[in-house]
Amino acid sequence: MTIEKISDTVQRLVCANGKEITLVGTAHVSQDSVDEVARIIDEVSPDRICVELDAGRYTSKTEPQGWENLDLKSVIKENKGFLMLANMALSSYQKKLGNQMGVSPGDEIMGAATLATDRAIPLSFCDREIQVTFKRAWRLSNGWNKIKLISSLLTAVFSSEEVSNEEIERLKETNVLQSMLDEMAEELPTVKKVLIDERDEYLASKIFTAEGSRLVAVVGAGHAPGLVAHMQRLEAGTASSQVDHITNVPPPSKLGSILSWAVVIAILGIIAAGFVRSGWDEGLSMFLYWFAINSSLTGLAALLSLAHPVTIIVSMAAAPITALSPTLGVGMVAGILEATMRKPRVKDFEHVSDDISRFKGWFSNRIIHALMIFFTTSIFASIGTFIAFPVLISKL
Which long-range contacts does 206-210 make (Cβ < 8 Å, 24+ apart)? Predict the structure, then answer.
């Protein structure tokens, strides 16, 4: 494979069989990238356009009613609340940058897709499904990395710092991107592996095997170096174009399930020991301590989150019970109940990306509010469980 560097952001890869791939690396919130993509497509006149987009995201961008079809209670019931918060935070941050730059996030990708449609050029969606990517990142991260991931996203969302056009364009420079990726790999190695390395492999395989002899591939600049390296391995036969191993979602950790059951057994064992060793009164006292600690902390979380009064009361009553079930958390109960008592309105769906970046929006937007209650009650209930351990043991 021969590689011709046309500019800092454009490379032409010529395979041994004569297939040409013009790779355009873009910044997703850059007007210059939007213009450059259109210019390259005009110059190359490709017989296929490949984009860093999956079919689901393309549909959500071209059919805005996607949010209206969201079943918030199902999201919470399926334990996807944390993933949805992270997804909304990332989208909001990209939108904020796009507003500063005067473009929408991914305009250059959608521009390439639109040109393909308008000119009847075959179009290939070459990115992995976004939900698979988020689920893999979440499942493969440990608890501490999950906290750091959400903290980083929320910090970015609430940051008032503005990014200049010059800084956005610098993000397309390989040396700047590499230093950022190295920093991410150090802080969040699993997240970097899933969001960057695996998608490099997936994108490279889909683009390399796409039909056509003259392709234009439009991808984020951060993926360009990894794509080129992997396509070189594909042509040399040292890598496989099969991507099944990075498209499956890992099952929940067995260790997590074991620990959950261990906590339940330990709590029940301590309370049972109280009844056996110290009699009915002391055993009942221990149970009431357990109930009070879990209920009070969960109630405090719901109260601070300004949950509906019914949500607060039911969450307090349910907390000690759900703490003894590894599959049913109080956050799930609280989130579903809040979404039932305060059903999301059309304006909540329309303004979710803007509201998530404002402190007030976390309370006024019913979608974000329900997810926040799911999040806070889950955290406080977990804290209550671990606080209860030393208290109950001391009562023995």
Answer: 206/50, 206/124, 206/126, 206/127, 206/243, 207/21, 207/50, 207/124, 207/126, 207/231, 208/21, 208/234, 208/235, 208/241, 209/241, 210/48, 210/50, 210/124, 210/126
Letter for the amino acid at 185?
A
How confident is the model over 125-154, as a mean pLDDT?
A: 80
Report the b/e string of 65-96 with b at 16+ CB within 10 A.
Answer: eeeeeeebbebbbebbbbbbbbebbbebbbbb
Task: Please tell me the predicted confidence (pLDDT) of residue 36.
Answer: 87
**pLDDT higher at 381 or 147:** 381
Paired tokens of 202: 């997936």
User: Of 121, 98, 126, 168, which is closest to residue 354 (Cα–Cα)?
Assistant: 98
For the chain, give the percent of residues with pLDDT over 70. Answer: 83
Q: Between 19 and 56, name the one with better pLDDT.
A: 19
Place of tokens 């941050």: 93
Q: What crossing angle do the helices spanning 330-341 and 309-322 adopt, rounded to 10°?
A: 160
Starting from the edge strand earliest in sequence, which strands make up the sheet with 48-51, in order? 2-5, 10-14, 20-26, 214-220, 48-51, 123-125
Sort 276 into a burial class: Cβ within 10 Å, 0-12 / 13-18 / 19+: exposed
